[in-house]
Design a protein that fits this description.
Elements lengths: L1 H17 L9 H11 L6 H12 L8 H18 L9 E2 L2 E2 L1 H5 L1 H19 L9 H15 L4 H10 L7 H26 L4 H28 L2 H4 L5 H4 L5 H5 L1 H21 L5 H9 L6
Antiparallel strand pairs: 1-2
The structure holds geranylgeranyl diphosphate.
Geranylgeranyl diphosphate binds next to helix 4, helix 6, helix 8, helix 9 and helix 10.
Length: about 290
């Protein structure tokens, strides 16, 4: 599985690369900072999950590729901003210097902004690759909604505001569903919509992704306590350093592990209820709570 995932990530990187800007012109620095961050590695889970859900519903075309690039651009923009001194103040990510350390605070803010809006420009390239303009329009709306104030940015707002303060389980779930879950929901839902899945199946995919998102963030919290910096590629104990309440600080390591496993089972039950079969997607969902980075 690890090897297959590695090969898949490499293949996805080829696709991402084809959508990155050429490093030329007076504004060359912004292109370099964007490409540095996009090429820094990472598991490429969101585009991989998107394409596997697309395949689950019978999708075969290349129209999914601009959407795959767009979701990874949005994810990368969020990592650039998350690492800034005004947020988590981290110097390493994916085993490399963070964008603000490599390019300066000002350029990192701009590179995050640039990737965010370039993602929309990139997703819009799918219009020229299909006869079904409506589904592309719907996917761009999903990207915007899941990224914005009702999604990732909304979740991050509550997260930042509550840093160093007591956080109830209810609020923590809200933060996780939005800050982490929303982009995973967008990834999988866009895969379904682009493949022409029914409304009922799209709703099921969104619920499946929501469970995956929560389990994924719980595992992220677990790795921040138990992980190896050399494997993860970023500092561990970052949550403690930033006085963050996490699933582990609230519920303890053992319950965190149990709850992540339960959420994974919920996601898999939904997957089994859907038409079609995709063994790789099933394994991938299992793997998300077994990962070491
Ligand atoms: C871009 C305008 C704008 C705002 C960003 C900072 C912010 C708002 C949101 C933070 C969202 C965030 C970083 C949530 C954590 C999600 C998470 C667990 C990320 C790690 O994802 P992986 O493990 O990373 O897939 P790799 O490196 O493998 O891609």
């Amino acid at each position: 599985m690890k090897q297959r995932l590695g090969e898949c990530a490499k293949e996805v990187e080829g696709i991402l690369d084809s959508y990155l800007p050429a490093e030329e012109g007076y504004q060359k620095t912004i292109f370099e900072a964007m490409n540095y961050s996009m090429r820094a590695g990472g598991k490429r889970l969101r585009p991989i999950l998107m394409r596997e859900v697309y395949r689950l519903f019978g999708g075969t075309g290349r129209e999914i590729e601009p959407m795959m690039a767009a979701i990874e651009m949005i994810h990368t923009s969020s990592l650039i901003h998350d690492d800034l001194p005004c947020m988590d103040n981290d110097e390493y990510r994916r085993g490399k210097k963070t964008t603000w350390v490599a390019y300066g605070y000002d350029m990192a803010v701009l590179a995050g902004d640039a990737l965010l809006i370039y993602a929309v420009e990139t997703a819009a390239r799918a219009f020229a690759m299909t006869d079904d303009a409506a589904k592309v329009g719907r996917c761009i709306a999903i990207l915007a909604e899941k990224t914005g104030i009702y999604g990732m940015i909304g979740g991050q707002t509550v997260d930042v505001e509550l840093t160093g303060k007591p956080v109830s389980r209810d609020k923590l779930d809200f933060i996780y569903r939005l800050k982490t879950g929303a982009l995973l929901e967008a990834s999988m839902l866009i895969g379904a919509v682009m493949a022409g899945a029914s409304e009922k199946d799209c709703e099921a995919v969104e619920r499946m992704a929501s469970a995956v998102g929560l389990a994924f963030q719980i595992q992220d919290d677990i790795l921040d306590v138990t992980g190896d910096q050399a494997v993860i590629g970023k500092p561990v104990h970052s949550d403690e350093k930033n006085s963050k309440t996490t699933y582990v600080t609230l519920e303890g390591l053992e319950k965190a592990r149990q709850d992540a496993a339960k959420l994974t089972e919920t996601a898999l039950d939904i997957l089994y209820s859907l038409p079609g079969k995709n063994d790789f997607l099933e394994e991938l969902i299992h793997m998300l709570i077994r990962r070491e980075k």
